[in-house]
Specification:
The protein is of the alpha+beta class. The chain has helices at 3-41, 49-53, 56-63, 67-78, 94-101, 131-139, 142-145, 156-173, 186-203, 209-212, 219-235, 238-243, 260-276, 286-292, 297-327, 330-345, 355-358, 362-374, 408-412, 415-418, 429-432, 435-445, 459-476; strands spanning 81-85, 88-91, 108-109, 184-185, 384-385, 391-393, 396-398, 403-406, 477-481, 489-493, 495-499, 502-507. Strands 1-2-8-5-3 form a 5-stranded mixed beta sheet. Strands 4-12-9 form a 3-stranded antiparallel beta sheet. The chain has a two-stranded antiparallel sheet with strand order 6-7. The structure holds protoporphyrin IX containing FE. Its cofactor is heme.
């Protein structure tokens, strides 16, 4: 190569480099301007500095499995409204949380909810962000969640059937004696119970988790593995759009899979098609009420997923975490057992206990509320979106489009509401408080189920399970924690993922 040619090639190379450098510099400048303007929008709201610049603060905390505690800690440090992301605020103010979800509130569901789709492109009642469509779909669900088509016009019969199946399972396989040791991972069995309840009341038959005492189709295992992914997406909802596209969508569960959510999709379609067949015999369950209220085939299929996913893990968490609190608080355990024993002696409770009987047991009611408070079963951000024109929250102007997340755990452990012993399981607080305090406490603990136009539709089911389960357990059994140093492994990922809740169960003398 001649000298001239070499110089020309070098000059061309230098041109390419400078063009490349210029492009990189422009991209960085654009990124800087974008970041600076997104930081500027909410610069007046307090919060950790790194959280105001990128979503990595949230991601890092979410990946720790202790997101709920980090959120509680920032609200303790910065106040009731904290900036936890470039466009995300965290509210620990019950008034604000109720206002955003009130029936006529102009706030809408935030982008967080888009991660609530089970099948890409198909909305469920959870993921629907369009207010009109959400309202219309909820309206078609009211009768079903009132148990109006179920046998006896309620959920009692189905829950009682599965409660007895649960007790039979414990009696036949998990009673330890002086000579036999049969430890049981109680969280898994409680999930089986919650799933079979949903099967029974929603689809006319239990799935058979309890009867077979098996994690059918590895449902629970795969569910637990998928929650961390959902947790990551909840901090960066745009990731959902990438995940739903090729090639990542190849990794998603597919109809025809033999296990997990794929298996669930196959189940949902065949169940709904069978129920919609001309001449199909009407059943006495929630699906019948959904059909009678005019839900479309695709709405019905999505609702099968919602029933199973929303209806199982949160109830199982409430039951297990409350039982854990009871076993580790001997005074509370003894007080509840005394109340149950007295009611039994005086013929005040049936077998299984009826919900109206349970509601007459004040200590039981205090235990249920205190359990929900200690470990609110839903810990996800549940962000709502600030409406057009913006709004004033806690004295700050918040521009439209801002996402305002719910600090479920922080709210339930807030010393300003619950006092210095907020971290202690103490059902007595519900019995000692005056009417005014009780009103505040009830208003806050009820937020564990959301509020108003977005409130949990399954609350009556969950409350009936809670009203029955502790009485049925305590009247029959004694419990010992197998590993007192680490009674349960539980971490939060939108819901709780709990494992290794090993108990030794003995029959009461
Ligand atoms: C202790 C148990 C439960 C707790 C603490 C709980 C809590 C919640 C929360 C916090 C929400 C979201 C509220 C919001 O978006 O602001 C929700 C929504 C929902 N829950 Fe529950 N839940 C429980 C059990 C159940 C059960 C058993 C079902 C029955 C299938 C159920 C069905 C639903 C449905 C359908 C929604 C969506 C409502 C909507 O977006 O309009 N939940 N729940």
């Amino acid at each position: 190569m001649g000298v001239t040619a070499a110089l020309a090639a070098a000059a061309q190379h230098a041109d390419c480099i400078s063009l490349f450098t210029l492009l990189v510099a422009l991209a960085l400048a654009a990124l800087f301007v974008w970041r600076a303007s997104s930081w500027h929008r909410l610069r007046h709201v307090p919060g950790p500095c790194s959280a105001s610049l990128s979503s990595f603060w949230m991601l890092r905390k979410a990946l720790s499995g202790r997101f709920h505690e980090h959120l509680r800690d920032v609200s303790d440090e910065y106040g009731p409204l904290v900036r936890i992301g470039p466009n995300v605020l965290l509210s620990t103010d019950p008034e604000v949380l109720r206002m955003m979800s009130a029936a006529r509130s102009p706030y809408t569901k935030g982008v967080f909810y888009e991660t609530g789709r089970i099948i890409p492109g198909e909305d469920t009642v959870v993921s629907l962000r369009d207010e009109g469509e959400h309202r219309a779909l909820r309206a078609k669900m009211g009768t079903a969640f009132g148990g109006k088509e179920n046998e006896g016009f309620g959920f009692g019969a189905g829950i009682d059937r599965q409660l007895l199946a649960f007790m039979n399972l414990i009696d036949s396989r998990y009673i330890s004696t002086a000579t036999q040791y049969r430890p049981v991972q109680f969280f898994r069995k409680t999930s089986f119970f919650a799933l079979d309840v949903i099967g029974d009341i929603s689809f006319g038959d239990a799935f058979g988790f309890l009867q077979q005492d098996q994690d059918l189709y590895r449902y629970n295992e795969i569910h637990d593995e998928s929650l961390p992914v959902m947790n990551i997406m909840s901090t960066m909802p745009w990731l959902a759009h990438i995940l739903y596209r090729w090639p990542f969508n190849l990794l998603l569960p597919k109809e025809g899979d033999q296990v997990g959510f794929g298996r669930l999709m196959g189940f949902a379609k065949s169940l709904i098609d069978k129920r919609l067949q001309p001449g199909a015999k009407p059943q006495k369950d929630m699906t019948q009420a959904f059909i009678n209220n005019g839900m479309s085939r695709s709405e019905l299929i999505q609702q099968v997923f919602v029933q199973i996913i929303a209806g199982s893990v949160s109830s199982a968490t409430a039951m297990c975490m409350t039982l854990l609190c009871l076993i580790t608080t001997p005074t509370a355990y003894a007080a509840l057992r005394r109340e149950v024993d007295d009611a039994l002696k005086n013929g005040k409770i049936s077998s299984p206990i009826a919900e109206y009987e349970a509601k007459r047991l004040p200590y039981l009611q205090a235990v249920i509320r205190e359990g929900l408070r200690m470990y609110p079963p839903v810990t996800g951000l549940g962000s709502k979106q600030v409406p057009k024109g913006g709004d004033f929250l806690n004295g700050f102007f918040i521009p439209e489009g801002t996402q305002v997340a719910t600090n479920f755990f922080g709210l339930m452990r807030s010393q300003s509401v619950w006092g210095k012993d907020a971290d202690v399981f103490r059902p007595e607080r519900w019995l000692e408080s005056d009417d005014e305090q009780l009103k505040v406490m009830n208003g806050v603990v009820d937020l564990a189920f959301g509020h108003g136009k977005y409130s949990c539709l399954g609350k009556p089911i969950a409350m009936m399970e809670l009203n029955k389960i502790f009485v049925e357990l305590l009247r029959r059994y004694d419990f010992t924690i197998v590993n007192p140093q680490s009674p349960i492994k539980a971490w939060s990922a939108v819901f709780w993922v709990a494992n290794d809740f090993w108990l030794r169960i003995t029959k009461r003398a």
